[in-house]
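User: You have something folded?
Assistant:
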Amino acid sequence: MQIKVKKPENQLKPKEVEINEPLMDDVILAERVTGKTDGVDFQLALLSQVGTFDGQKLPMEDLRRLSMKDFLSISQELLGMDIAALLKELVSQSSDSSGKVDSGTTQQEGCQ
């Protein structure tokens, strides 16, 4: 079997990407823009706040034209951790329905 991957003509292909370490202001702004605290749109909004692409700031709408490979590479740098490790952590957290937090107390007890 032969597989050909065609690259779209309008694909965003930056040669250099610079990412500033996100501040909480950047995270809050990305949350306000998207109404979310996670997901692809949130990450794109955060990237548009902290990243420059070939020396230019780009809106999240333009960043949607990144290839999936480039987006995942940039996201890995932004998050500072391996995507596979992040996915494993998220899956383990969602499967733990005991209500426990890392300190060993339940979430309800930790709020008192």
